[in-house]
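Bench log. Compound arrived from synthesis this morning; before running ITC I wanted a structural hypothesis for how 2-phosphoglycolic acid sits in the protein. Inputs:
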Amino acid sequence: MTRKLAAGNWKMHGHTPNLAELQRLLDIHSNAKCDVLLCPPATLIHRMATMCTDSKLAIGGQDCHGAVTGAHTGEISAQMLADAGATYVIVGHSERRTDHNETNADIRSKAEAAIAADLTAIVCLGESEAERLAGSTIEVIEQQLIESLPSTANAENLVIAYEPIWAIGTGMVPTLDQIAEVHDFLRGKLREIMANAADDIPLLYGGSVKAANAVDIFNVSNVDGALVGGASLKADDFSPIISALDVHAK
Ligand code: PGA
């Protein structure tokens, strides 16, 4: 069975007092069967990773550079994230694609850098509202997948997150059929590219996941978890999402 992953993306939110939210998750979910991940701002990674030592919870970065070192002021390499205690990194989030003009080729090089540093890369894909309305969702997803898939990917070091841009932070969510269509497509395409390994790659849905819709979303075929933004900031909001996924995990 594909492993299940509840991943939280704190984006540019979180200071020292917010470490209490992680402590609550550690207290509640010490026996979680699904994998649980928080991706805080880089400034909290080391402290959070230390808190998570010997626990079921993992800590990840929200982005990394494609190079190992160099004259790139303000950037963080995958090795630096690993050195701080991260075991995952999100690459290609739509906010990075938009705010920093990241291309599929950039995202592939970041994902390859992540894998080379022994991190699991969470590669994000998703269509805009205009692309959805134009009926080109599958075409867009296919191109993003083919162009951003790291050549070194395997079932242990890759997670794919489908995040329709119009659903992120808006409260709008695709229908369960629309989610199933994309996730089934992704699984099929990965099978073409990676053969048997494809079945073990977790496929996350992201975009306005809340406790109220998580149960239904986790029942959709080929959905192996969620990438959660706003509802991951408070343990009280994220915890029921973790519990909803946990029933699907071995
Ligand atoms: P949201 O964000 O859950 O706040 O919609 C999801 C994401 O951007 O990963």
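What the model suggests: Residues 93 and 242 are 21 Å apart (CA to CA). The two ends are 8 Å apart (CA to CA).
ITC booked for Thursday regardless.
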